[in-house]
Every structure is written in C-alpha cells, then in structure tokens.
Amino acid sequence: MERNNGSNTDEQAAAAGTDASQAPAGESSEWHQIMQAPAYKELVKGKRKFVITVVAFSLVFFMIMTVLSTFTTVLNGQAVGSMTWGVVYGSAHFAVALILSCVYVYRANKWDRLAEEVRQETSEKRMGT
Amino acid sequence: MSVEPATIVIFIAIIALTLGITAWASRRNKDTNQHYAAGGTISGWQNALAVVADLISAATFLGVLGLVALNGIFGFYLLGATMIAFLCVLLLVVEPLRNLGKFTIADALMSRFNVKGVRVLMAVNTVIITIFYMITQLVGAGVIIGLLLGLDYALAVIVIGVLMGIYVMAGGMLATTWIQIVKSVIILGAILAMLMFMLARFSFNPLTLFDEVTAQVGSDMFTTPLGTTIGGLDTMSTYVAQIIGTAALPHIWIRFFTVPNAKEARTSIVGAIWILGLVFLAITLLGYGAAVLVGQDVITNADAGGNLAALQLAELLGGPILLAVIAAAVFGAILSTVSGLVITASGALAHDLYNHTIRNGEASEQEQMRAARLVPVVISAIAILLAFGAQGFNLALLTLLAATIAASVNIPVLLLTLSWKGFNASGAIIGMLTGLVASLGLVLVGPSVMGENALSPLANPALVSVPVAFLGCYLGTLLGKSRAQEERKQGVEIPYEKIQVRLNTGIGDIEKEPKKEAVS
To answer: Which residue among B177, B373, B384, B465 is least enclosed by CB atoms within 10 Å?
Structure first.
C-alpha cells in the first residue's frame, strides 16, 4: 500500500473510474484518499498542535504546584489577608481548566466543520461508485 | 445526631422517585444498545449532569469536605488536580473514545487490535476497578445511612445493594443516567443552599471566613508543611494519582457512549468541568466553614476521618430540615454512583466476557439481554458480601487507591492505542498486566496495608506504577513485533491510519455510514 501512495493519489482521485478497477483494495484506498484530503490534513495538524500544547501546559502548571507545595514554602506566604499564595495557585487550576476548555470548544467547532467536509466528500464518492 | 422524621420521609421519597424512573426506563430497555448506551439518546448537557453525578459521590462530597475541614488546603489542591484531570480527559480521551467504542472501553481497544486477550484483560481490569470502587461506596453508604436512619450497617448495605441491582437490571443505562441527573440537581441545590447559609455567617465574604479560620483554627490550614523527601514524594504521588486516576475512571469513560456523537460528548465534559468547578469551590468553602463553625475536635469525635463534617455543618446551619435535605442528597449520591458502577461492571462482564469472549460474539440479542439483566444482580450480591468485610476506612483514601489502579491500567493502553503507530496487541496485553500487577503490588507492600514495616514508602504508587505500565506496553510491543506483523498482514489488526481517520472524523464503520446518509 505504502509504495504507491506517493505517486498515484491525485490522478486516481480525479479519475473516479479507476477506483472500480482496484476493487480488491477498495476499502483501504478509500481511507488513504481521506488521509490525503486537504481538509483532513488541516484538521489533524491543527488538532494535534493544540492538544499537545494545552495538555503540556496544564500538566506543567499542575506539576509546578505539586513541587512548590511539597518541597518549598513559597506558597505559604500571604497574598490577601489570611489567603495564602497556595489558595491563589489552587484557584488558578480552576481558572485554567474553565478557560482552556472553552477555548478548546471554540477551536473544535472549526475542526467539526473540517471533519464534516471530509465525511461529505467520502459519502459522495461512495454514492458515486 | 438523632433520627428526624423529615429524614425518613425524604429517604422514602427518593427511593420512590428512583424506582419510578427505573420503571419508566424499563419499558424502553428492550435491546443491548438501550441497555448499555441508552440508545445514544442522551444530550450533551444531560450527560454533563450524569458525569458530575459519577464524580461527586458521597466519598467526594463527605470525604473531601472533611479533608478540607481537618487538613485545610491539601484537599483544595486535590480538587484543583481533578479540574486539570478533566481538562486532559476532554482534550485526549473523550472524542476518540466516542468515535471508536460501542458499549465498553474494551470495544474501543478492540476496534484496533481485534485480539481476544486485549478484550478479556480490559474487561477484567474494568471489573476489578469498579468493584473496588463499589466497595468503598457501599462501606461509606452503610456507615452514613446507619447514622442517619439508625439502621444497622448490614441492613443499610443490603438495601443499597438491592436497589442498585434493580435499577441496572430493569432500567439499564437509561435509568442509571436519569437517576444520576436527578441526583446531580438535588446535590447541587443542597450544596448551594448550605453555602448560602454558611456564608451568611461571614457577611458573604470568603476572606472573612479565611480570617476566621486563621484566628480560630490556625494559619496552617492554608499552608502545606515542608516534608521529608519521601513524605514529599508521597504527597506528590497522591496528587498525581488523583489527576490520572480521575481521568481514567471507567464509569466516566463509558458515559461518552450514551451521547449521539463526538460533539455532544465534548459538550458533556465541558459542562461537567463548569459544574464541577462551582461545586468544588463550594465544597472547599464549606470545609473551611465546618472547621470554624463545627470545630475540628467535634468533627473528629464524630468520625476520625472527618466524613461526617458535612452533616454536622448542615445541622448546625439549618437545623433538622437542612440536615434532612443534605442527608437526602448524600443518599441520592450513593444510589446514583453505585448504579453507574454496576452498569460499568456489567457491561464488561456481560458484553465483553460473556458475549464476545465465551460466545465469540455470536450470542443472540435475546441471550445478550438475559445476560445483561442477570449480571447486575450477581455483581450487586458480590459487592454486598465484600462490603461486609471492609468497614472503617477513610472513604477518600480508598477512592484514591481505586483510582491508582485505574490510572495505571487504563491510561497507558488507551493513550498508546490512540497515538502510537507501532503499538500492538502484545504491548497492550503486557502493558495492562504490568499496570495491574504494579499498582496492586505496590499498594499491598505500601504503608496503607503494611503500616510502618512497609516495603514501599509510597501510599499512592501512581507516580511509579503508571510509568512502569508504559514501560510494560513498550517492552510488550517489542516482544510481539513479529506476531503483530503477521496480524497486520492477515487484517486482524486494523491499520493505525484508519483508526486515526475514524477517531478524528467519526468515519469508520464503513458499512454503517452510507446507510445513515441514505436515510437523511
């Protein structure tokens, strides 16, 4: 499968008739075509970048809290009245989760449209054959 | 705390309501799709409330509130960790899982590997995790209901165990979901009412509350002690167990199969994050409030683990009526959480082990339904027996231990299945075994079981057991490399790229898709 996927993707996709001649590989050539679709590439690339960045950020943010609160006393200092920096940092976890989840939904709506585009293309091709 | 007539009335009302929901759901509960996934008819926000119900068990509400009341900010950090855990679930797990799975987590793994061993191990793990969690719930329920209604511990456990069996046997996932939604609404209302009563005593200013805590209890309620290296690592491991363990709870994962599509699954977890954020902040403030108003001595006198602090605070703030309302919310929380666990365990037993393993996936719909109805009864009976043997632990600690096993078994295998092209069935099997053995073993030789003579210093071994499980996955993958090549050639394992297409777009069930299009 992998050896010919570089050379023949575009031409084959354009000439829908040749799909039928490749009947035995039908199912797998279908998802190879999906993978080559610009909408799919954009979806995967954008999603991966966003997810890795946000997960890395939130885990680092969390790990810093665990280290600071167990091995140092910097969070024990008072911020406002009796409220320590620990309370502030703890509350910041809530802010991070709430804000980033909303940013994700905003971005994911765009990916939904791309995924829908890919689905449409796929089902049109299926109806055609 | 004396038994109030109001409490008894509310308890009976809740039992009647939940049985009513079950009766309504049982009329629709005709096939396996209905039974395990509520037919995919639950909306995102309904599911959000159900997820909240799964998480705010009696252990979380009573245990964490007591933890904050006795230990201060440590409990608050744990709740913060839970928020981050949910964010990571949203980003990494929810949509791929929804797009790959059908009824159970094993379904999702099998959509790539198609090797029986993977299904069996994931199912067994799910059963172990949920039964363990179920025991913690039942033990807590027995103690609390015993106190509230003056019932014997054994009788209380039997009542809850029988009820959870009935809900799931007759009403399946639909009944479970609606019981959870109702419970969420009750407990949200109860917590908010209690918060208002409590804040009224501090002129509605949390800072005044904090000042009072510092003045009356001590400033160490807002600080963490500088521990030894081992002590520090253990605390860190507790936080890590909390974050990965919460992210890996199987009864929360299977909730994503009850919504119609990935977008609704996403809505449900974002909704859950918002509701949980509010509830957790309220629980923290209530915990501090209990420390000031009830007093730590009074709390530990009633229960050393602080599990009754919430009820003591309710009685002090609003008298017998508020106590009855909070008690009812706790009762609802217990019922809904255990039924969520029973449906999860019965999916793993009846769907994965009976239908797909023993019967090779060839059991008729009728036979499957019979198994689906019999298994919850068996599970409830086993859970009741086990709960008799395990009284007198701190609920939150037991929950954390269940979470450690979930973290080590579920997270490495699922993440690698979703994201590592070279991963194979042997890697999944060995990884799951390693995770299970490592977490069980380290808990057994740790301080929570062996006390001072413990071989391992960490009470929460997640910091060690999760990386070990990842290592197991890696080594298993290397060992099974040639076998995996064979399986790929034969088409047993579905190509990684195809899985990627499916989890990113929802395209996958090649036979299903055109039908759907043709109808619409």
So the answer is: B373
Is B397 a residue whose pLDDT tops 80? Answer: no
- Per the listing, tokens 């035995």 go with A24
Cα B136 from Cα B433, distance rounded (Å): 23
Q: How do residues B17-72 score in pLDDT, each as one tens digit? A: 999 999 999 999 888 999 999 988 999 999 999 999 988 887 788 888 998 999 88
With an 8 Å Cβ cutoff, are B280 and A112 in contact? no
For the stretch A27-86, pLDDT in tens is 566 777 788 888 888 888 889 999 999 999 999 999 998 888 888 888 888 887 778 898
B383 Cβ contact list (under 8 Å, min separation 6): B131, B134, B135, B138, B161, B338, B342
In chain A, which residue's Cα lies nearest the Cα of B277?
A: A94
Phi, psi of B100 (to 5 degrees): -95, -35
Closest residue in A to B494 (Cα–Cα): A28
Contact residues, B window 245-264, toward A, CB-based 8 Å cutoff: 263
- Give the C-alpha separation, B417 to B428, whole Å: 8
Which two three-digit tokens encode residue B105?
């987590």
> In chain A, which among 23-52 make CB contacts under 8 A with chain B?
27-28, 30-32, 34-35, 40, 43-44, 47, 51
Non-local (6+) Cβ contacts of B441 within 8 A are none
Q: How far apart are CA B18 and CA B171, in angstroms?
A: 10
The reply to whether residue A94 touches residue B243, judged by beta carbons under 8 angstroms, is no
Residue B494 in contact with partner chain A when CB distance is under 8 A = no
